[in-house]
Design a protein that fits this description.
The protein is mostly helical. It contains 25 helices and three strands. It has a three-stranded mixed β-sheet, with helices on one face. It is globular and about 65 Å long.
Length: about 575
Amino acid sequence: MIFGAAILLTVGFAAPARSASTSADAKLAAVGRIFFKGSWAFRPAEATNAGVHDYDSQLGSVTPAAFSAEIARLRSTLYAVRAIDADDLSLDAKADRHLLQSDIGRKLFNLETRPEWRISPSYYVQLGSSSVFSIVSRDFAPLRDRMALVIARERQIPAMLEQGRSNVEPSRVPAIYARTAILDANGAADFLERDVATAFAPVSDADLQTRFAQSNAAAATAYRRYADFIKTSVVPEAHASFAIGAAAYEHLETLQNVNDIPLSRLLSVGEANLAKDKAAFIATAREIDPNASPSEVAGKLKADHPTADQLIPTAQSDLNDLVAFIKAKHILDLPDAPIAKAVPTPQFQRQFTFASMDSPGPLEMKATEAYYNVTPVEPTWTSLQTDEHLGFFNRYNLLVVSAHETYPGHYTNYLFNKRNDLSLIRKLEWNVAFGEGWAHYDEQMVVDEGLGGGDPRYRLAQLSGALQRDCRYIVGIKEHTQGMTIDQATQFLMDNGFMGREPAYREAVRGTEDPLYGYYTLGKLMLLKLRSDYQAKMGADFDLAKFHDALLSHGDPPIYYIRLMLLGPDDKGALL
């Protein structure tokens, strides 16, 4: 895309110092290169998303033999990684080593310990739809060429779903997984028939259109039949528990955080933070209107939103304002880049998101544009649907959401990663508690630094998002380790997050499939603790921008290693 007169961010910044490389570092890097090639061969959509286009016509095998081979490959790679003594590695390479071990550990958990391909019918739905989506969503080649790639992948979807029928073991499937998979499968068919067809409508090649119509219809029909299979053959027998259990939860947390934090400690920290944020939300609502309930005050904020025509221009204006705010307050030193372009979310993505940052893959060399997608109002919606949609984008929440997604959130993180001399492992792996924790930390940090000029409505919008993430943190633990039901989780979210029943239910269901989805709050709390410890170390020399610059200069490793990088190798401070 041509950015025209887009403003350039022109603040200079020195590259971060790296720990000295060793021969062991080189061995680890070699293991990493082999590992990624194997991962891309197994799941080609991962390569497409990363910006590697050697596998774009492939879908990947889902036979039991393929899964067995992948498990063996992962175990072999894990052995090779562990054979490299951590004491022989530089600090940066130690972080890379853990990132690889963590990735392999999660994949083994999901393939072997709790095999998604046996217990989650949606595994196959998402594999097919995401493989098509990764081709459609990025303009890395002419539309005609990408249409041919989608045809190639779509032709493999019916056989993949048929194999999925054989792989899934209904008695091991949780009931909520089965019900959700029916919706997912029919949604995937809708996605192909409506959104993907619309995306390729401009292609004028008649022969290509004929082949696409055939592959698209066959894939959509296969999804509908797969939904019927789940309804008739899986749902009646799907009575397994979705809970992974305390031991598995602690295992996954250790993979994410490095340190083994006891569940009791994790839960007490989350509950304390929820209580603090809930009290602040109630107090802020009373400051805005002492005569209304907190929910009523939040509802009034939703009424103050842009019109449908103003939504995208308002979002773009917010990005300009955020960049100006960051520079004026010296929040951090933004890398040189055009200000992100706010655009309507592409039609084929609108069923998935309200707002998202569409940055290129870390290895992408062609489709290097970056867009801030904001989902617009559909012309077919009723006035009630329109008001509800725009209510989410009220002027206060939109600015906070934009801070999370763009400046100084995910897009800024991407710009730092692109500019810095990161290893291949660091480019391709990320620690979710750091990545999502940083974006969530930003929501609070920018309001703390004066975003909104002290207007308490911006604080209330920020706290609303914080309460949602706090509830996720607690629900994830309790659903998987303490027997919390979906109904109980829904009520908990309504009572503590000031959410409506439908969004609360969606959040509760998400927790059944993503046990650690408290990483937003967890990462934010770890970063706040790190900032406090860093400030204590620096004393009068502490500078917020320098802290943020240093924090973002190392990619997205576990916060455990960021502490060592910023505080020194002898840091013994707790993560929380």
